[in-house]
Amino acid sequence: RGESDSQDVTHIGDELIPGLEDRTVVFVEDMIDTAGTIISAKNRVVESGAARVIAIATHAWFSDLAPEKLLYSGMSDIIVTDTNPIAYQLKPKFDESKEAPNLTVVRSGGLISDALKQIVGGGDVDAIYEDPRDSEPTR
Asked: What pTM did the predictor assign?
């Protein structure tokens, strides 16, 4: 995988995107690989007036020069799961730099384990999202 895997955000044209002035924009992606797509999208919305940009991704591959690009990307926050240990390895580097976005790594093991238990046991996967505090106590 390399730089050719990233995509420039061109499908929305060269126009500024109306309604973003002083807003926070949140991008939700399945993965951040080379960071080209997410940074291109961030640049487009900042040009359109967005005040903050937050990137959320399930998988943090962070290949090639992605860590360095993200360190100086101007993102406000980057939130990823721990499906790839590289996120934990890079977190100290982000924490040390005053210019770097806040990198948050969210644990996913419990959620995956609960989902597998429901699937294998013939249960309802929706049950893993229910808050036990919402149910009536049994007597």
From this structure: 0.78
